[in-house]
Design goal:
With 398 residues, this protein is an alpha+beta fold. The chain folds into 2 domains: 67-179, Alpha-Beta Plaits (2-Layer Sandwich), CATH 3.30.70; 182-324 and 342-392, Alpha-Beta Plaits (2-Layer Sandwich). It has 12 helices and 10 strands. Residues 41-53 have a biased composition (Basic and acidic residues).
Length: 398
């Protein structure tokens, strides 16, 4: 009868439900009474630790933050480095860019793969400084994530003798090398380099007289204008159009005494310079002032004949600043971009030079005597003969 069947059916269903609950509870509990299995299997996601979530959020934010084209104002002491430009695959020759790229990656400005392939961040340096050469106003352009406290974070991962002193946004197509109108270098040297070869000179006692300084400046002024500088670099022939360079100014400033030795600073501004060009320009002037070569050799060096031009040491050379006059006229006051001038950073630049660049030049000169040793090699150069004459003389002597 229906009245008897219904209570039995209800009882069976209740027993089935009870068994199902006990079975489910057993699956949820392991032998120690703890919840077994992952939270996701139970329909719930695992709770994440706050620190992990924070790191992931920061990483996610970095990925989302758009990359922008910027320029960085750099200062560095080049001693111990094989120049500015990175040589991928030559880890034994450490460069300034090796340390810079490492700091950019570690600070989160660029992803790691951009550090391995610098084209991905559109990286370009304004000037490729040689081995041992320092800079007070180097400019590099690149695309980065504009993270908070970006300069502080980059500098935290750089050695103290490399600093990022400023940052400015630039146009998307900006290239620091191609947009640069001119570069100014300085060369700091002990003034005994100008003492005549026939005079017995004590390095710490020597002081540059007015007449010699005037002669130095007269010779340096000869370089102004456009000339063929094929003799002032390697791997450039006299017919190579790129050997012609335009020099705007070149002069030697008033001497000053540091650590009992008198020094002077030569400044040169030009559109662009070839490898070793400035050091050879200065080396030839020193050879003339010391009496090893006649003044006419400077003009002769611009001709097609090969001339023996000595190369002064790299120690005293400093990239002072780079100029972007055309860019500043076009974009500097467009309301979106700033002119690439660094008047607010000049004090920081001066402090860096006094703290890292000048002491390195002075102390290295005192300890290693790079200028004094180089001066001793001037006597082995043949300043009077052209390459053709030297070959002819060699044949005649044979």
């Amino acid at each position: 009868p229906r009245s008897v069947a219904e209570p039995r059916l209800l009882l069976c269903r209740l027993q089935d439900l009870a068994m199902a609950e006990r079975s489910g509870a057993a699956q949820k509990l392991n032998g120690h009474g703890e919840a077994a299995g992952s939270g996701e299997e139970n329909g719930h996601r695992n709770k994440r630790f706050k620190s992990d979530a924070g790191e992931d959020d920061a990483e996610e934010q970095n990925k989302k933050s758009p990359k922008r084209k910027i320029v960085l104002l750099m200062a560095y002491s080049g001693k111990g480095y094989h120049g500015m430009q990175r040589n991928v695959g030559s880890s034994q020759f450490k460069t300034i860019e090796d340390d810079l790229v490492s700091a950019l990656v570690q600070s989160g400005c660029i992803p790691e793969n951009h550090g391995e392939d610098m084209k991905k961040m559109s990286f370009q340096r304004c000037a490729r400084t040689d081995k041992g050469v320092s800079a007070a106003g180097q400019i590099v352009s690149l695309k980065v994530r504009l993270i908070d406290d970006i300069l502080e974070k980059i500098n935290n991962h750089l050695p103290s003798h490399i600093r990022i002193l400023g940052l400015k946004r630039v146009t998307g197509g900006f290239n620091s090398k191609n947009k640069c109108d001119a570069r100014t270098y300085s060369y700091m040297l002990p003034t005994f380099a100008f003492a005549h070869k026939d005079h017995d000179v004590q390095e710490e006692v020597y002081r540059l007289d007015r007449e010699t300084l005037e002669k130095v400046n007269k010779l340096l002024a000869c370089y102004k204008g456009t000339h063929n500088f094929h003799n002032f670099t390697s791997q450039k022939g006299p017919k190579d159009p790129s050997a012609k360079r335009y020099i705007m100014e070149m002069y030697c400033g008033e001497p000053f005494v540091r650590e009992n030795v008198e020094f002077a600073v030569i400044k040169v501004k030009g559109q662009s310079f070839m490898m070793h060009q400035i050091r050879k320009m200065i080396g030839l002037v020193i050879a003339v002032v010391k009496g090893y070569a006649s003044e006419s050799i400077i003009e002769r060096s611009w001709g097609e004949e090969k001339v023996d031009v000595p190369k002064a040491p790299g120690l005293g050379l400093v990239l002072e600043r780079v100029h972007f006059e055309k860019y500043n006229r076009r974009f500097g006051n467009d309301g979106l971009h700033e002119p690439l001038e660094w008047t607010e950073e000049e004090e920081k630049i001066a402090v860096f030079k006094e703290q890292y660049i000048y002491p390195t030049i002075i102390n290295t000169e005192r300890e290693e005597k790079s200028m004094a040793n180089w001066l001793n090699t001037l006597s082995i150069h043949d300043f009077n003969s052209s390459a053709a004459e030297m070959q002819a003389n060699s044949k005649n002597s044979k």
